[in-house]
C-alpha cells in the first residue's frame, strides 16, 4: 500500500455492520473509493451464526461466506485485512494503521464491542474463552475435546444459544447465571422456566441465582468451579458470555464524544462531521442497540446519507429470534426503563407474554414455542424504538 | 429459478417451494416477493439476501 492511497469513504471493521454498509453503499454509489480496514481476517461471515453453528452442521470453513479477496472484488472495494487502527488524526483526516497513514474524506467506525471481562478468584490461572468474532470462535472450537465438559458463564442470549448448541453437539454443558432464570432480562419468569426446562431436556445443567466464587485447576487441563451454594462443577472448557462493552477507546482518544458508546445523531454522525459510527460501538439516542436488525437499518440509513441523501435513522419495534431449538423464542424488549407488567397467556410451551403499561398498552413481548410465529404481526403493534 | 440466501442466518429462499405460509406461492421468483417481506427465520429485510451461486 502506498501513502498516496485515494481518500474517499473508509470503514473500520469487517463485521456485519462494516460489510452491510459497504454492500448498501455500493448499491447506491459504484464510484466513490471505499476502503474497509479490519484487524480481523476480513472474511465475510455472520456473527449470529457462530452460536448455532453445530446445530446448523456448519464447519469452520462453512461459516466463511466470502474471503476478504472475494468480498473486495465483488463489492469493488479495497479490504485491508489484519490491519489494526491505532489512532485517528481528525485534523489531517488520516488513520494510523500499522506503519501507514490512510486518508479519509469520511470515516465510518464499525468497531464492534469487546466481551465484558469476567473476573473471578482463580480466573487468572484458568483459560476462560470469550467468542465475539470468527477468530475467537476458531480458537474456541479448535480447543474443544470431544464430549468435553463446558462451563458457560452467563445465561443471556448468547450464553443460552451456545449452551443449547454445544449440548446438541454432545458436549456436557453447565450454565451459571446470578439471575433467577435464564434470559432473565428478556423473559418473564414463566417463559424463563420453560427455557430452563428445555435446556435441561437438551442435557444442559442450569444453575441460576448462583455465582462462581472460585475457579481452580484440578489436574492438567481439568478444572473446577465452586458456586456460592457450595456446588462444585468440573469442566474442561470455560466460556464467558456476560455481555459486551462498546469499543470507544480510539474514538475517545481522538476527542469524539463518547458515553457508553460513540455518541451519534440520527444520521449516525459523531461529534465530528466527517466521522460516523454504527453497530455495537455506536450509541444512538435509543442507547446502544446490540442486535442485528437495528444494525442493518443503521447500515441502510448511513449508506443513503453517505451517497448524498441525508437520512435520519428510524427504527420500528424489532423482534429478536433467540436461537434455542430446545424452546423457540422471540423477544421484543420494552424500551429501557419502561414500567408495566407481563400479561401471559397460552398452553404448555406455546406462550405469549405481553409487557403492558398501566393503561393496557403493550410495550414489548416475549413468545415461546408455536407462538413465535406471531412475532412479525405483534411487532407492528409495538411502539417504535426510534420514531 | 434462482435461490437466495439470508446473509445473516443462512435461510435459503427456494422459488420452487415459495413461502406459502407467508402468502408467497411456489413458483414466485425472489424478485417478485414484496419489498417489505422479511426473513422468516431472523427477520432481516429482503435486501439482506444474496443470490446463491449455482
State the main characteristics:
heterodimer; A: 387 residues; alpha/beta; FAD/NAD(P)-binding domain; Enolase-like, domain 1; 3 domains; five-stranded parallel β-sheet; five-stranded antiparallel β-sheet; 9 helices; 22% helix; globular; B: 54 residues; mainly beta; 3 strands
Notes on the protein architecture:
- Chain A is 22% helix and 29% strand.
- By secondary structure, chain A is α/β, with parallel strands linked by helices.
- In chain A, helix 1 (16-28) runs parallel beside helix 8.
- The longest helix of chain A is centred in the last third of the chain and has 15 residues, at 292-306.
- Chain A is globular and about 60 Å long.
- Chain B has no helices and three strands.
- Chain B has a three-stranded antiparallel β-sheet, with no helix packed on it.
- Chain B is globular.
- The mean pLDDT of chain B is 92.
- The interface between A and B is medium-sized, with 21 and 12 residues.
Layout of strands and helices, then pairs:
The complex is a heterodimer of chains A (about 375) and B (about 55).
Chain A: E1 9-12, H1 16-28, E2 34-37, E3 44-45, H2 60-63, E4 64-66, H3 68-75, E5 78-80, E6 85-89, E7 94-97, E8 100-103, E9 106-109, E10 113-115, H4 134-142, E11 149-153, H5 157-168, E12 172-177, H6 189-201, E13 205-208, E14 212-219, E15 222-227, E16 232-235, E17 237-240, E18 244-246, H7 249-253, E19 262-263, E20 275-277, E21 282-283, H8 292-306, E22 320-322, E23 329-332, E24 341-347, E25 350-356, E26 362-368, H9 375-379
Helix pairs in contact in A: 1-8
Chain B: E1 4-6, E2 12-13, E3 49-51
Antiparallel strand pairs in B: 1-2, 1-3
